Structures are given as structure tokens and as C-alpha cells.
Amino acid sequence: MILNISKNIYQQISNHLIDAYPNEGAGFLLGYTKNHNRTVRMILALVNEWETKEQTNRYKISAKAYMNAEDVAEQKGLDLIGVFHSHPDSPANPSEYDREFALPWWSYLIISINNNKVDHAKCWVLDDDRNQFIEEIFNIK
């Protein structure tokens, strides 16, 4: 699978995650899948719902936020295709916590934010057995 993101949407994601720094920021990726390509058409930026002291190393998305994202996607004729989140001052590799709460069919865009700037980004998909993440190609167009 390949995740395709426009420069404009990638900038929206980056801005949201920089604004959340030094805490983790997160949001949903909405778009569509066709021929092993996922295309992001819009994002839903979220507020990290963890207690403040935990927000530097994890994010929480409530069931209400998830249901809202499903509703928005349906209204827009899109699908919920993944999640983006930041790793403040850490590499863009998924943590064990990320794996525990991930779904196998979504793309997970992780962006490393260091000193209020985007350092690097990687995209991941959880294998069907939910044992490990596999790096996914992503393109910014």
C-alpha cells in the first residue's frame, strides 16, 4: 500500500503537530483507497485527550472523536484511512503503545518533531496478526 498526501495537507498536519509540541498531537486521515493506493483528501485534527502529564509520550482519541470522524467521512463521501500523530523529540517509529491500539487496515503517519520543527516522517501499517508494523511508502505531491 502507498499513502499519497498533497503538500497542502501535509503542511496542515505538520502545523497541527508543531502547535501540539512538546506534547503529542494527533488526528485522522480521511480519503479513499484504489489499486493499493491510499489518497488523503482531508484531515481531522484532534485534541490529545490524555491527562496533561502523559501527553508528551502518547495520545488518546476518544470513542466520540472516532464516531465523529466516521460521520464526517460519510458526509464527505470518504473513508477513514488512518491516523497521524507526532513523536516529540523522538524518532518516527511506532512504540509498543502505538501497536497495542492500532488497527491492521489503517495507515499510521508518524512525524518526529524536534525543537518545534518537523525532523522526519514515516508511515506504517500494522500486519494482519497485529504483531508488528511494516513501513509503508508515502508520497507528498
Can you describe what's shown?
- The chain has one domain: Cytidine Deaminase, domain 2.
- It is 23% helix and 42% strand.
- The chain is built from three helices and seven strands.
- The chain has a seven-stranded mixed barrel.
- The chain is globular, with a radius of gyration of 14 Å.
- The mean pLDDT is 94.
Topology, pairings included?
Elements lengths: L1 E4 L1 H14 L5 E9 L2 E10 L16 H14 L2 E10 L7 H5 L6 E8 L2 E10 L6 E8 L1
Parallel strand pairs: 1-3, 1-7, 4-5
Antiparallel strand pairs: 2-3, 2-4, 5-6, 6-7
Task: Give short descriptive properties of this protein.
single chain, about 140 residues, alpha/beta, Cytidine Deaminase, domain 2, 3 helices, about 25% helix, globular
Tell me the β content.
35-45%
Radius of gyration: 14 Å
Number of helices: 3
Mean pLDDT: 94
What is the count of distinct domains? Answer: 1
Total beta strands: 7
Given the C-alpha coordinates, what overall shape results? globular
Q: For this entry, what is the oligomeric state of its chains?
A: single chain
The biggest beta sheet, please?
Answer: 7 strands, mixed, barrel
CATH level 4 superfamily = Cytidine Deaminase, domain 2
Structural class: alpha/beta
